[in-house]
Amino acid sequence: MSVTHYLRFGTHAESKYFLGNGKDMYDSIIFNGNMVAYTQSAIAAFIINTHEKGFLIDPQTHAFQHDLSYLKSKNSKGEEKIKQSIQQLADMLGNPVLSKLESSLPVTPSDFGEQPVIDAFAEKVIKFQSNIIDTVKEQDDWKYLKFKLKDQKSSEPAPSGLIAPYFYMSEVSYDRWLDINVKLINASIAHSGESELMAQLVIAKDVLTSPEDPISKIIEEYGNSEAKAVLIWVDQFNTVNASKTELAAFRRLAEGLKSKGKRVIDLYGGYFSVLLSKKEILDGVCHGLEYGESRAVKPVGGGIPMAKYYFYPLHYRMRFTDFLTVHKAMGWGVSKKSFNSKVCSCENCEDGDIQKFGITTPVRIKRKSGIVTLNYPTQETKDRSLIHYLNCKRREFKTVQSKSIDELKKELIDSINTYENVLGIESVSHLNRWNDTLS
Fold it and tell me: Mind listing the domains of the chain with CATH numbers?
């Protein structure tokens, strides 16, 4: 069974990594709905430039159920206002999210108490995704885009699937939202045409381990819905840090949906999720550019940028200083050939010069305590790390497809035995948890 490698489009500044040689790094693209709503022409042009790749548009309907402070930003006068991209998304999705946003209130289950409201909202959300190219046909850019399509001998691109409206569920709220989510899925089928209808399942981590066992009910309800595929997003679920109980519950959830005949995709996943595809549990895995292997449902601050290196044998990004420790302990400074064969031989690693992944520049930051100087990775350092990361991800997907599950599990054990004495037990313990969960 092959697995679809999705790459999430973050900002237009990242476009270059999706084009040219970057097209070999992924199978399909996922766009966030607010970006599509805010920069329709640019997204349409980008889709046409990557026309041979499939794409999905996440309508992000869950965004309107949270505290509205998450949807605001400050203008030049220091005033907090709804972000323009969010406002334009609400304009396109319509009521009840639009009216609630205008009233400065979050969406609640009671807003979907009547079937006509559910039907109308489902129609709007599906049309928003399916009409992405149509929205720019009245604009000046369309002449250029139409010529480009004709030059490429391509038909107008359309999403490879359409995602039904969805809302986030926690241990205490799933019994209120579950029925509404399923009704929205089933109402969407009337507007999806021949496209694959997809359900997005967004849950808190506490749903995975709740003693009330909401997983069984979710599997039953989503499994019997009209959706052909289910996209899973577990809030802040980092499989490197996750416990065996959480990993096993995630596997059970995905496996249960799969047993109901659904295609199952992890929207924010790392190597563990790719391994699950070998067990024919997951059909697709998505991540971003050096981030997005886990994500919080409610936006959080980005923190201080830090030079990191994706260490393939352990399948996570480690601080560059920690990588230097491993590099020195393993004697790779003496043997470039050994480093290339055991770690990476991509275009940025083949020369063995690993110092270039740690180049920083001092930046003076004003804080309450005074001026502090922090070392930030240079743009060149970020580019090298990012391209190396994408090469590692492509390698992971190819490796999982080409090897048996026993061979893949042996690789995990070999990495534990090799690096435990260098980094300590805790730094490699996730490989043990993954291995146990795969068994």
Answer: 4-287 (3.20.20), 308-402 (no CATH)
